[in-house]
Amino acid sequence: MSKISITINDEPYKVESGQTIMEACKEHNIKIPSMCHFDGLTDVGACRLCLVEIEGQSKLLPSCTTQVEPNQKIRTHSDRLSGHRQMITELFFSERNHVCAVCVANGNCELQDLATEVGMKHVRFPYLFQECEVDASHAMFVIDHNRCIMCTRCVRVCSEVEGAHNWDVKNRGYKVRIISDFDTPWGESESCTSCRKCVEVCPTGSLWSKDKAQGQSKKNPQMIKDLIEKRKVNL
Amino acid sequence: MTGSTKTEEPKILNADDSRTKLLNAAIKKSKGRPDALIQVLHTAQGMFGYLPLEVIRHIAHALHLPASRVYGVVTFYHFFSLKQKGEHTCLVCTGTACYVKGAQEILDQIEDHYHLKPGQVTEDNKLGIQVARCLGACGLAPAVVIDDEVIPKLNPEDTQSVIDSKTGAA
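The joint structure predicted for all components is written out below.
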């Protein structure tokens, strides 16, 4: 791997070629907000929060799926980007029913943290108030579609780390939902191994363990990150 | 759509059935490669008119794909259908022009005579009703498509007689 020179927020950096912009920023302690990115899983560029400005390009590009290029001039924070990030966050809240007060993840929720980080004070868009199912058919876990933001971390961790591929996405547009098997109730799924990886990587209170009540759910995404690293070593 | 795999359906796939043979031939031609999924689903949809769960399960297994992935693809594309569309289909355009010219009256007539709402199929599976958001034939409004044949400027009062004559129903 060769080193290349890039500029991030007017500061020069030497980074590995082949890295994504997000990886390069992380290495130099530049924090870019993101919901769908999870260290070790394939990036899908779904949440659009990590969009960055690149000089010479009119379009904003997701830093998680864009590779660094020599002499690239990147801007990770600007008024334009903060405006977009705030709007995206508001859209997350308006799409489904994120009621923090009664949520298991209240206080330990990446979506809540994001709203604080981007300075969301209110939601400018009308709420859709979609009717979403809560599937509690699994013996240990619950999937509450009201809290889901379709980051698809659960889909990817199940497919790439556990290898079961119980989860996937059905439909399109605002009707998209996470499904197990043939849209089978989770408890009747033939492929779920009950490994709880999806629960640990879920950034919100969409996937949670039945032994947790309101505000008690504490996710352990670091465990999954470590697991991915350990499996790399064994290969 | 709340799906449940527990409903007992009559067996659709069996080794002597010509449709099953054609489906298996399509799978064999793809050499069981996962990326042939859409092609194989296309073949199956063409032969069965819809994609019964049993067929999806068979395809998922044959192409070494997870069940949820195949189900996701089927629900993503409008071309694929999980429910029977009916032997004959009647597609009513409800685009702006057709709506103004009386598409709703046509749908009301259909509901009166056949007790069908858009997306539904008669119990004997003879006729299915669908709606489209503009066929791009606004000059023919209100337009109805019966089994790939466009019926231009349909008078809502003639709805039943036209459908019956085109579908051969009594």
